[in-house]
Design brief:
Blueprint (H helix, E strand, L loop, with lengths): L15 E3 L2 E3 L6 E3 H9 L17 E3 L17 E2 L3 E2 L6 E5 L3 E5 L4 E3 L1
Antiparallel strand pairs: 1-2, 2-3, 4-5, 4-9, 6-7, 7-8
Length: about 110
């Protein structure tokens, strides 16, 4: 028999698989098995939509981001390639054309 992890919200042991997701019949919570594996590894960074980010991913900014010391801001929809994840307040290090090296918060980007 295949043992599935309990629900992360209500700790119910009656979880089941539905396509690529794990589902809890008691509270209705759905989560990905990939999320479960990544959280066991420790450091997890998620984008604004809840997708797990990894080093080398490409992301897009979802809102205009003001840049300290610059006269212009990073526009919404700016594509940022080859990100590097770090364990700090601004958890994405990257280079943005026209701005150079930059640190971004993951809640202001979405994975492409």
């Amino acid at each position: 028999m295949n043992l599935l992890p309990p629900c992360p919200l209500c700790k119910s042991t009656y979880t089941y698989e539905m396509d690529e997701l794990l589902v809890c019949p008691e509270c209705g919570h759905e989560w990905s098995l990939q999320t479960e594996v990544a959280e066991e590894e420790g450091f997890v960074v998620k984008d604004a939509n809840g997708h797990i980010l990894a080093n080398g991913d490409t992301v897009i900014t979802i809102k205009n981001l003001p840049v300290k010391g610059a006269s212009q801001s990073i526009k919404a929809g700016t594509k940022v390639k080859n990100i590097r994840l770090v364990d700090s307040d601004h958890n994405i290090d990257c280079k943005i054309d026209g701005f150079g090296a930059m640190a971004l918060k993951s809640e202001f980007v979405k994975k492409v």
